[in-house]
Amino acid sequence: MTTTTSRPVPLAPPRPNHNGTPPQRGSGAPAPESRVAFGTIASQTGHRIVLYGPGGIGKTTLAATAPGPVAFFDLDDSLPRLRAAFAEHAAQLDVRPVEGATAWAGIREALHASGWDGIKTIVVDSATRAEELAVAHTLATVPHEKKEIVIRRLEDYGFGKGYQHVYDTFLTLLGDLDQHTRAGRHVILICHDCTNTVPNPHGEDWLRYEPRLQAPGSGKASIRLRVREWADHVLFLGYDIDVRDGKGTGSGTRTIYPSELPHCMAKSRTMADPLPLMKFDPALWTHLLK
User: Fold this and answer.
1) This prediction's pTM
2) Distance in angstroms (rounded) separating the CA atoms of residues 235 and 190
3) Domains located in the chain, CATH noted
């Protein structure tokens, strides 16, 4: 018995409607052909920078020497204490505090406001304090899934949920700052430091310095890790210490570390070698902002 295979009959193109307009495509019809578009690499975007280190080492002063005018969100009230020192270098510095931005909503409103033309650098001093404001904003504005439960602390949301809410809140700030980097402004987040244990699959764990930002032990909702991913540069400012026979002695010199080392979290897209930290010395920006 001989069998024959029928060939598919090509479908006729759909007829135009009675008014001459082309027919609407059905859900099964192929989408119209699209063509990918290619652009050029942007060259005028600002750098996203994190400066962190121990108190008093000179983080705020270093940020003030960035390309100006420098707009400061002075959340830690650092500028009044540095006013006299800044006055001695008035010809070199152009620092402009942002007024009225003392709460989370105020910071975001200022970043979305007009009047930023001419500003070259935006400093948040500090991101550690900004995170505290994000926590307060979250507690005040994010209700519990069960409406009858009153929220007074992050733990009231339930296991891990409070940290996730704060994480989501903080990401809105990074998004606001991204709008300014796309406009060509540099952004500097100043952070306080903390120590953290680094898991080592090949041997013993060790301690190192990291920015003091939310980092739950589970690894989820870690603002610290998200900021590290977001930033172009994470720079650790540290004192030089010589350890001998289990005792540390300091020489008083300070160093900017742009690369990951056992004792500190760091990264940079443009710098590889440590740089001496000198007071009111803008040399860092020449090396960094390439």
Assistant:
1) 0.83
2) 10
3) 48-288 (3.40.50)
